[in-house]
Amino acid sequence: MPDTTHPPEQLSLTTPWATEHRPFYVVSKGKFLTLWILSLGLYQLYWAFKNWKQFERSTGEKQWPVARALFALFFTHALYRQADAQLKRDGHDFQWRPRALATLFVIGMLISNLADALSRRNIGLPITDIVSLGILPITGWITWLGQRALNAAAGDPEGRSNARLTPLNYVFMAFVALVLVLALS
Fold first, then answer.
1. Can you tell me the distance from the alpha carbon of 67 to that of 86, in angstroms, rounded to the nearest whole number?
2. Could you tell me which residues come within 8 angstroms of residue 90 by beta carbon, excluding any fewer than 6 positions away?
3. What residues does each domain of the chain span?
4. In angstroms, rounded to a whole number, what is the distance separating the alpha carbons of residues 185 and 175?
5. Which of 46, 108, 127, 146 has the fewest CB atoms within 10 Å distance of its CB?
6. For position 8, what pLDDT does the model report?
7. In this model, does residue 147 exceed pLDDT 80?
8. Which residues of 7-32 are buried (b: 16+ CB within 10 A; e: fewer)?
9. Dihedral of CA 119/134/25/74: which sign?
10. 21, 27 in Cβ contact below 8 A?
11. Spatial CA neighbour of 78 closest among 53, 57, 98
């Protein structure tokens, strides 16, 4: 039910109703890329979960967000199709290629997973480690390009409503840094 305490022209993107009923998770470019890189790509799990959870919340349809996040390789195309459909329903002329971006995401994640698996078995070192780390900013950028469309479909193209890092974000980044330091020592 819409917020009746504010006239529609005064309804901001940060009102609880607007945030709760957005079809997709919104995040700014700076926050997204910071969390992606500093979490060594683990943010992807949270990102996929939040998008599917938000989509489930807005549509009322059961989506199994945890499973869709864990198996994002199989569900990113569907997520981007939903965003594209939403953009078209809302009459937005957002220029993007959802199928190509989702495919690039899948390819990037497959390369990353393969390099990680080989590295864990001491195969191809140090090349597999370099590939694993080198693909990280590339997959982050590809996923950010998709996130731009998700933001637009959610009515917040710049992601202003979720631009600040939270204390939990800092805790997560510190944890990843600690794990990295321990792994390198």
1. 23
2. 153
3. 27-176
4. 15
5. 127
6. 37
7. yes
8. eeeeeebebeebbebbbbbbbbeebb
9. negative
10. no
11. 98
**Residues near 121 by Cβ (< 8 Å), separated by ≥ 6?**
none
Pair of tokens at residue 21: 């009923």
**20-38: average pLDDT:** 93
Least confident of 14-28, 93-107, 129-143, 162-176: 14-28
10 Å Cβ neighbour count for 117?
12
Task: Rounding to the nearest 10 degrees, give the CA dihedral for residues 178, 65, 104, 174.
Answer: -10
- Cα separation, 112 vs 162, whole angstroms: 28
Burial class of residue 101 (count of CB atoms within 10 Å of its CB; 0-12, 13-18, 19+): buried
Task: Tally helices (H) and strands (E) across the chain.
Answer: 8, 0
**Half-sphere exposure of residue 33, counting CA atoms within 13 Å on the CB side?**
10
- Per the listing, tokens 């609880």 go with 16
Residue 1 has pLDDT above 60, yes or no: no
Q: Residue 18: its pLDDT value, please?
A: 57
Cis peptide before 126 (omega within 30 of 0): yes
Rounded distance between C-alpha atoms, residue 27 and residue 105, angstroms: 18
- Structure tokens that stand for 145 in this block: 């390009």
> Rounded to an integer, what is the distance from CA 114 to the centroid of its chain?
21
Rounded distance between C-alpha atoms, residue 104 and residue 60, angstroms: 29
